[in-house]
Amino acid sequence: MIKTIVSTELPIDEQFCIRKNVIHNGKDGLRFCVVTGTHGDELEGQMVCYELARIVGGHLDSLNGTLEIFPALNPLGIDTIQRGIPNFDLDMNRIFPGDPHGTMAEQTAHAIIEDIKGADMVIDIHSSNLFLRETPQVRINVQDAEWLVPFAEHLGMDFVWVHEAATVLEATLAHSLNSTGTPCLVVEMGVGQRINHKMCQRLVGGILNLMQHMGMWRGDVLDDVPSPIVCKGDRVTFLNAETSGVFLTEMTCGTNVTEGQTIGQIVDPLRGKVLSTVKSPVNGYLFTIRAYPIVYEGSLMARIFNSEEV
Ligand SMILES: [Zn+2]
After folding, report:
1. In the chain, what are the domain boundaries?
2. Bond into 150 cis (ω within 30)
3. Which CATH code fits 2-231?
4. Averaged over 107-113, what is the pLDDT?
5. 310 C-alpha vs ligand 1 centroid, how far in Å?
6. How far is the CA of 133 from the centre of ligand 1 (A)?
7. Higher pLDDT, 167 or 64
8. What is each CA distance from 211 to 18, 181, 187, 198, in whole angstroms?
9. For residue 57, how far is its CA from the centre of ligand 1 (angstroms)?
């Protein structure tokens, strides 16, 4: 059943709507929400929503409870290929929990929180941005780690990154939900404006696996759901560009690297010179790699989980 959770008039005879697909079976059972499209340039969640609606909607007998699918929390952003909310010049994931008496964007954020609040699980799907490619991963604030990591381990992702408290972004959807006791896992994967089928299928399989673990799904699940590498503590190395130029790399994310291994080169196309050779300072697991080749001094090129105790 399609439900509208927000509906507002736009200035000239158009309607702003946020909709969800509510798929339900059984007398009671838990409530599981899959949300995406907060950032309009991140599209992997669209395929995940499509597949979940298709699979679960087509096998209702296997569902025990309610699956709610929200493909577009920022529909204007998706329609116009913009990360934020057009016209407001605003990152929607910085205005939660919103305000019922605020601007249209704040009212929308408030209505979203009110609608989702109380769910037994929320998966918030992101796909990085245009610049960085991410291996399928779950990101969790350290304060929620004890509670949420056991759920994240069932999602079949490569990596779980437990953030330090200092980097907690309080105005995100996930933080707003988690702080009111509604568990929300943030998934990051792929790259902006593209859809990687394999990664999407991985996450669909992982979500069904988690639903099965929670007693909500009796249908098929993957035979062997991989266990993620869980990164706790301050063990992520950021590789930032030493100089501006064109970053060339053939590395893919989700690979192990050794100390001193070349990750890529920053080159000068005018003079045919290598300006900087980018090497891994640690033995570890490369989970982020730059996708957009133009870099400025300080641009992020890679993130590596230091697999040796520090
Ligand atoms: Zn995002």
Report:
1. 2-231, 235-306
2. no
3. 3.40.630.10
4. 96
5. 30
6. 12
7. 64
8. 24, 19, 16, 20
9. 26
Residue 60, both tokens: 């209702």
Most confident of 20-29, 75-84, 117-126: 117-126
pLDDT tens profile 210-252: 999 999 999 988 888 889 999 988 899 999 999 999 999 999 9
**What's the CA-to-centroid distance between 216 and ligand 1, angstroms?**
27
Whole-number pLDDT of residue 167: 60
169 CA from centroid of ligand 1 (Å): 13
Q: Are strands 159-163 and 132-141 parallel, antiparallel or unpaired?
A: parallel
Locate 51 and state its tokens: 């597949």
What mean pLDDT do residues 164-175 have? 80
Task: Answer with the residue of higher pLDDT: 117 or 10.
Answer: 117
- Rounded Cα distance between 72 and 17, Å, is 9
Helix (H/G/I), strand (E/B), else coil: 235: coil
| Residue pointed to by tokens 């057009």 | 86
Work out the percent of the chain whose per-residue pLDDT is above 90. Answer: 86
Q: What is residue 309's predicted lDDT score, i.e. its pLDDT?
A: 67
Measured in whole angstroms, the distance separating CA 95 from the mean position of its chain's CA atoms is 17
Bridge partners (DSSP) of residue 305 are 236, 285
Please identify which residue in the block is written with the tokens 């100390």.
259
User: Do 2-231 and 235-306 agree at the fold level?
Assistant: no
As a CATH number, domain 235-306 is 2.40.50.100
Cα-to-centroid distance, 186 and ligand 1 (Å): 9
**Tokens linked to 17:** 């709507």
| Residue 101 tokens, joined | 């008496």
